[in-house]
């Protein structure tokens, strides 16, 4: 199963980690967590990716993989023994450069049942035609410059080819729907998908079935000739929870209610008696001395 997350680690991804760890435990073996950079460069954020796994599987063996986009990455001795692969977020072109030498192996493992959990860049590079950066297309601005990954012109490269659609992440935070639209114009892909922050698109690589997990939306873009059809989906809301029942229900008799609260407000009551001498200045129950002040609930 592929778990493609539209952001980095998030509090909305408990179900994603539950499913990933369940699949990894069934398979058995170590889990590789791949991050771009040296051990010193990634040590501050690597625990954010590892801890949710160890919380669910304390005995899990974690194999950190420090990706080198120059081709000097050191991988575990036997990749076939991996229980799962986590690919962190960061600079997308560098992640693709570092993982491309293992593209065929990763493809075989995923299609053989190894779960893949990709965050941001780790989600974008799984496409056959991977969007790796750029904020302009043919001179036209398609996204804020800050999200261009250091590239100006839209850049699409051969990805890991685990799925067909192009993938764009941080969709709601970065307003980059235009990148996905331009990608469909620029490359042979007929489908693109954008994933919001704190949201995961789960894909079964065997059947192609998908479902959405998390807090946000997934937008699907389908190219139809000169047109692009856009639709969206999101995870179903959780079922409403009923208030807890009282452990010791207490029956309250009408005579025990406060005297100023009628026991049956909807039932007409007898007209109240006029105030006795000395109470003329006191407002009757249910009335206010200031006519300008609205009654409660008005």
Structural class: alpha/beta
Query: What strand order characterises the main sheet?
Result: 3-2-4-5-1-12-13
Q: At the first level of CATH, what is the class? A: Alpha Beta
Q: Helix and strand string, N-terminal first?
A: EHEHHEEHHEHEEEEEHHEEEEE
In this structure, how is the largest beta sheet organized? Answer: 7 strands, mixed
User: Which architecture name does CATH use?
Assistant: 3-Layer(aba) Sandwich
Helix content: 10-25%
Please name the CATH topology.
Answer: Rossmann fold
User: Segments where pLDDT lies below 50 for 5+ residues?
Assistant: 250-298
The first-to-last residue Cα distance is: 57 Å
> How many DSSP helices?
8
Q: Average pLDDT across residues?
A: 86
Going by CATH, the homologous superfamily would be Class I glutamine amidotransferase (GATase) domain
Strand content: 15-25%
The rough form would be described as: globular
The count of DSSP E runs of length 2 or more, i.e. the number of strands, is 15
How many discrete domains? 1
Explain the overall architecture:
The strands form four sheets. The chain has a seven-stranded mixed beta sheet. By secondary structure, the chain is α/β, with parallel strands linked by helices. The chain has helices at 14-27, 39-42, 46-56, 92-99, 103-111, 121-124, 171-174, 177-186, and strands at residues 2-5, 31-36, 62-67, 84-87, 116-119, 129-133, 136-137, 140-141, 155-158, 166-168, 191-195, 199-203, 210-214, 217-224, 227-234. The model is unreliable at 250-298 (pLDDT under 50). The chain is globular and about 50 Å long. The protein has a single domain, classed as Rossmann fold.
């Amino acid at each position: 199963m592929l778990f493609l997350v539209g952001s980095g680690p998030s509090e909305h991804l408990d179900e994603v980690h539950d499913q990933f760890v369940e699949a990894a435990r069934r398979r058995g073996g170590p889990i590789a967590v791949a991050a771009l950079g040296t051990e010193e460069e990634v040590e501050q954020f690597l625990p954010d990716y590892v801890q949710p796994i160890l919380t669910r599987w304390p005995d899990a063996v974690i194999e950190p993989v420090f990706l080198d986009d120059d081709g000097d990455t050191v991988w575990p001795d036997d990749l076939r023994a991996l229980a799962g692969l986590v690919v962190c977020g960061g600079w997308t072109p560098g992640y693709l450069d570092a993982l491309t030498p293992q593209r065929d192996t990763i493809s075989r493992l995923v299609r053989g049942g190894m779960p893949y959990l990709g965050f941001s860049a780790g989600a974008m590079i799984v496409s056959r035609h991977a969007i790796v950066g750029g904020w302009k297309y043919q001179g036209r601005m398609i996204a804020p410059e800050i999200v261009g990954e250091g590239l100006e012109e839209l850049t699409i490269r051969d990805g890991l080819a685990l799925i067909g659609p192009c993938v764009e992440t941080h969709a709601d935070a970065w307003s980059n729907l235009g990148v996905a639209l331009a990608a469909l114009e620029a490359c042979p892909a007929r489908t693109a998908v954008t994933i919001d922050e704190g949201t995961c698109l789960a894909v079964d690589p065997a059947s192609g079935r998908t479902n959405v997990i998390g807090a946000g939306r997934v937008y699907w873009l389908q190219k139809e000739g000169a047109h692009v059809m856009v639709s969206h989906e999101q995870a179903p809301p959780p079922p409403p929870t009923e208030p807890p029942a009282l452990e010791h229900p207490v029956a309250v008799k009408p005579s025990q209610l406060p005297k100023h609260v009628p026991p049956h407000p909807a039932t007409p009551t007898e007209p109240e008696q006029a105030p006795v001498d000395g109470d003329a200045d006191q407002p009757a129950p249910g009335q206010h001395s200031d006519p300008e002040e609205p009654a409660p609930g008005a």
